[in-house]
Amino acid sequence: MASDAATDAGHPLTMPFSPTPKPPSQGSPDEGGGWSRLRGASLKASEVPDAFWRSLRHLNSFRVFLAIALGVAGMLADQTFHRFEYPKLFQATCAVYLLVALLFRSPLMDRRERFERQVGRQALVDIVCLTLLMQLSGGNSSGVGLLLIVTLAAAGMLSETRMVLFWSATATLAVLGEQIVQALAFDGSAGGFARAGFLSLGLFASALLSNVLAKGTLAASRVADEKSRQAESMERINERVIQELPYAVMVVNGNGEVLQHNARAAELLDVHFFAHCGIGHCSPRLAEMWQRWCAGETLPPHPFQVGREGRRLRARFIELESTHREGAVVVLEDMTELEAQAQRMKLASLGLLTANLAHEIRNPLSAIRHAAGLLKEDAREADSATATKLTGIIDSNAERLNWLV
Which of 111, 144, 181, 366 would be 45's cystine partner, CB 3.0–4.6 Å? Predict the structure, then answer.
């Protein structure tokens, strides 16, 4: 379906795994942002923008007001019925019109019924009632027929252009039929037909113009919804990345309010974050550093201590905007842990150095002991007491050095 294609095309994680895309055809979502959906099947109630539902509710409120106003005018002005002597029928039509308009309120509020069906039902009621009221009030010269323009403008919000043309043609046939009845019964002049023709052109023009604007609004609404979904997805990804960082991270806006943080930040600062809490809630010293950073000062690299016996932390402020300092990402590093880690690294390096020194000492020491052994054998053969004593001194000191290593 076109909606699935549009969703897959806009999702950054599905593109590497999707098959080779087909060339976009005319009216596809790749070219027109979902125009094929506008020409296809009717929309679900959840797919219709809220602006369309508000317009339909406002139209129904106008319908209620119109039925009441025409009914009151029919009761107060008898001259309205100079053609037909049926004031009761006029008032009854207004009453039925009002009752039906009130019945329309419930489907408009719960939105469980399709938008196109509700628009079609309301358009049918408007065409029938307004045409009958136009007939009872003297024909199209009374101006009641102009109210059909509002109805056809609402019908223009339908996604299918053929349905818009259908309701425009239905209203046109109703206007022309009413004029034929007027011509046969009272006035056979061409003026009435001219007015009916111009009114019919106005009905088609208003419906088609409204349909073009509605399609543009619907396409823009879908693009906005897709951008909103992408923004929400990116926000979730950013939040997940922040939580998985080994450092303590806080996102602060220009007012010093903490927008996001990870669990490591709450652990190091030993605070409980709440919605839009200030950076001063975390640490007064950190708030002071934040003020100095916002003022453009260069912060010293010295760490600060949280509480009397708390951790020693070092803060780094990374600006969100390169042009001005309105908000930043605050990265906190645990200097106590870093210093302990550095101490462990020093001890490890010292141990490695000691091992290397021992190795370097043992090699010449072994050579000395070997040479002393050879001298001792020569001294025994020569029966030299002095040489034997010297080789003994060499052996004892070599053994002492070997024990130290």
Answer: 111
